[in-house]
Amino acid sequence: xxSVTIDQVRKQYGAVPVIHDISMNIEDGxxxxxxxxxxxxxxxxxxxLAGLEDIxxxxxxxxxxxxxxxxxxxxxxxxxxxxYALYPHMTVAENMGFALKLKGExxxxxxxxxxxxxxxxxxxxxxxxLPKQLSGGQRQRVAMGRAIVRQPQVYLFxxxxxxxxxxxxxxxxxxxxxxxxxxxxxxxYVTHDQIxxxxxxxxxxxxxxxxxxxxxxxxxxxxxxxxxxVATFIGSPAMxxxxxxxxxxxxxxxxxxxxxxxxxxxxxxxxxxxIRPEHLTISETGVPATVVVVEPTGSExxxxxxxxxxxxxxVLKDRVxxxxxxxxxxAPDRAKLHLFSAQGIRVN
Amino acid sequence: MSDLAIPTLxxxxxxERSAIGSLRLIQTACILVIALVIVxxxxxxxxxxxxxxxxxxxxxxxxxxxxxxxxxxxSNFAEVSNLSGELAFGRYLLNSLFILGCTVGAGLIVNxxxxxxxxxxxxxxxxxxxxxxIALYVIPQESIIMPLVIMVSRAGMxxxxxxxxxxxxxxxxxxxxxxQFFAQLPKELFEAAxxxxxxxxxxxxxxxxxxxxxxxATVSILMGIESWNQYLWPILVTQTDYARPIAVAIATxxxxxxxxxxxxxxxxxxxxxxxxxxxxxxxxxxxxSFVGSAxxx
Lengths: 348, 297
Hints:
The structure holds two protein chains of two kinds. Chain A is built from eight helices and 19 strands. Chain A is an alpha+beta fold. A six-stranded mixed sheet of chain A has the order 6-7-8-3-9-10, sandwiched between helices. In chain A, strands 13-12-11-14-19 form a five-stranded antiparallel sheet. In chain A, strand 7, helix 5 and strand 8 form a beta-alpha-beta unit. The longest helix of chain A has 18 residues, at 166-183. Chain A is elongated. Chain B is an all-alpha fold. In chain B, helix 1 packs across helix 14 (261-282) and helix 11 packs antiparallel against helix 14. Chain B is flat, with a radius of gyration of 26 Å. Classes of the chains: A alpha+beta, B mainly alpha. Chains A and B meet through strand 6, helix 2 and helix 4 of A and helix 9 and helix 10 of B. Chain A: One of its GO terms (molecular function) is ATP binding. Chain A: Residues 4-234 form the ABC transporter domain. Chain A: One of its GO terms (biological process) is carbohydrate transport. Chain A: Its main location: membrane.
């Protein structure tokens, strides 16, 4: 196991920069998720850690050793690819043991290591099968097994669950987390799915446009997003944002809707008012709104309302009898407000 | 829908099925005619090789008797299967087999390596090299054959097996075929092997080459046919029986004074067998590929 340090790392293709001086430190045994929309540079950063992409500037250290010019095979890392990348002509056992074979390990050692990894991942009955004879979830587990067998210092996962269906994704998510808890190996996991990031990571790195927007524990990011991008990216349904300005003890939206502010607010001038859907409730003391869509999910009810001309999402724990077009009053929880400047930076 | 509409729909479906049936019948008839045109000369060759009278063979040509033999005999085959002497066709056949084996074996290695490097190597100017390789393909063999003869003659290579193998091992067409096949394999396979600790050569040998069975089969068949049918080049560079291939040797039956149709036919049948076997051995990989299971299917 080892820590990973990314120090002022930069990547550019010709004159076009895609990663802008990123720095972060990943502790030994930590599970860090890189999350962000498509094209934000998260996979490029992971590939730079793997050694599959050259870095244009800065330094990457794995276990204290600078690996900028070290070949992938000498970095002591293992990577699980989005497409699994299993060798189709080799059995599961051969796929898993290939790296050890290349290292020159004897047959007995390879078999023992493969058997141990197969036991961890419940792959033992499948060892003689070819990849084409496996389901998507089983192939994914083989890809993980191939990484485990090598006992690397760092695991790299590049959107490993994005090819699986929703149900299997939930199962595999738990399996990967369980695996990390057992092996305690430093893990860097790339995903565009914020639910995956929230549920699995010790810390999340939110990226956009080749830059880090915020690094923190999942609930820190959820409770105190540093800017409007993180605020809307983390959480589903996304945080409601209203543009406007503070007037006396109210935040008045551009439509003239007055939203309540904390009584003792003395912070900087906020021009964006954010409130998570579950912190908006239907209350007689709230501001007038009109129901647009009601979506019962069973455990909760999602309601889309019009607040002036702006849309607002509510997540209600109770089952409510609301109809589209029905007038309601919605009330934000003042203690859970998020206020941002005109540039989208958090101010409260 | 009214009740009347149902019989109308059924009648329409019936008409459609009948039209499809007629179309299939015409297609089958066309295919049969084409197959007959292709197969009949081969059948005629086989029948003629079983006749022991060369004048009778000539007389039968042009009539349906060419497709029938009343007293089949293998005497022609026995005559042309010697390993030495005037009719050492056994020897020529072995020569051809040796040349084919070496050319195809070496060709698979050299061309696949070149194709792999062009598809996955890190050399600068790969695109330029590939363009040059493709450009070379348009140069006809005949246009470079005399300079080649002079070169091998000066190198003292005439009348050897090497002279019939080495010049034909590397081919722009087969390099390009391998390049195309390797280039369409998923990048993640290369990267996964790289992460596993494989060298570039090991990736080629252990991952990409075993996956390229369809390309290997295609190149084996094409290269085998090309090598087997070489005629002009061996005539120019062989003078004795030592390394003479069967395609050249058969021509000796067609002398100025007489044509030995019976022996020529038997030798031709013998000549066909290895290349047919090569085709049958590899043809199933022409259309099969299991690369699809490498990544998410």
